[in-house]
Each structure stands twice: as C-alpha cells, then as structure tokens.
Amino acid sequence: MRRGSATSIVLVIVIIASLAFYAGFRLGQTQTQQITAQAPQQPVPQGECIKLEIINDDDYYPKLLDLLSKANKSIYISMFEFKSDTDEVAKVLELLISKAKKGVDVKVVLENTIDENELTYRRLLDNGVPVRYDTRSRTTHTKLIIIDGYIVIVGSHNWSYSAFMRNHEASVAIYDENIAKQETKYFMQIYSGN
C-alpha cells in the first residue's frame, strides 16, 4: 500500500469517527432537551446557598430526635416502615404524639402493605394524630420528613430499630424553605390520596 493511500484511509477513518461523535453528541443534546422540556422546571434562586447535612448510619437517630423536639409549627412524615415495637422507635412515636398535643400540626402517611406499621397507626390514631395509609394503587416507599416548613430529611432510613441502630443507611437534612415548600406540596398530594 502506498503512503498516500494509507494517509487517505486514516483521514477517512478520522472524519467518520468525528461525524459519529458529533452525531452522538447532538442526539444526546436533543434527548436532554426533550427530558428537560418534559420535567417541571423549578427555579433555582440566585445567590442562595442551601444548607445540607449528611446523616449516615446511627447518626440519624439523635439528629432526628433533636430536630423533632425543636419543631414548633409542623411535622409531616411519609414513611415506608414505622416499626414502633422497640424503645428507640417508640420514643419517636411518643414525641410526635406529644408535639401534636402541644398544637404542632403533625400528619403521617404510612405504607399500607407493611404489617409492622399497624401498631404505629393505631397508637397515632388513638391519640388524635392525623395518620393515613397510602392508596393501594401505589407503594409509598418514601422516607420523607418535613419540619416547620424549612427542614427536609430524606434518604434511606426507615423508622425501625435496624435502620436507627444497625444498618448502613444514608440520609440528608436539607435546610431550605423553597425545597421544603415543594416537598410539602408533594407530601400533601400523598396525604390526600393522590
């Protein structure tokens, strides 16, 4: 093969590879634009710094107790598993009941397919705390807590002894009114059965 022919072949390969790369890039841009166009746009406030706090493993339980005990306006909870059969989890349950009796707006949604939620459901209901099971058409797998309209806790922690004391779990506390407002709207949709 002559040197000119080899150079021409290399040039053709480079051009084809470049065109393929460009086509893939453009296709990716188009798909991203389509996904972005379909997703609801949430404004990001300029100059605002959102405070995040990572809560891993058994650091979650004392942080949860601290934040719940400081609540003075509202506590909204959507929880897959709220297994209040141990002292640790029962303490959270009693704290919620106490807060509700002091006038804090406490609302709870529990997954309806988890038998362990029944004890918690009955205890809250018997003490006048608004509690609901989610609809049968959906699984509520959320572990979402919204406190006083500005703190959102979300992550992998269920409310069980294992999640509080034994498991590897990862959650985050978000301190931001805009995010809390969006998550409160989402919580109220679940709470109303949507």
Automatic annotation (TrEMBL):
Keywords from the named record: Hydrolase, Lipid degradation, Lipid metabolism, Membrane, Transmembrane, Transmembrane helix
Lipid metabolism among keywords: yes
Organism for this UniProt entry: Thermofilum adornatum
One protein family per Pfam: PLDc_2
Keyword Transmembrane: yes
Transmembrane segments: 6-25
Any one Gene Ontology molecular-function term assigned to this protein's record: RNA endonuclease activity producing 5'-phosphomonoesters, hydrolytic mechanism
Superkingdom of origin organism: Archaea
GO biological process: lipid catabolic process
Domain PLD phosphodiesterase residues, every copy: 136-163
Gene3D superfamilies named in the record: Endonuclease Chain A (3.30.870.10)
Name under which the protein is recorded: PLD phosphodiesterase domain-containing protein
Signal sequence segment: none
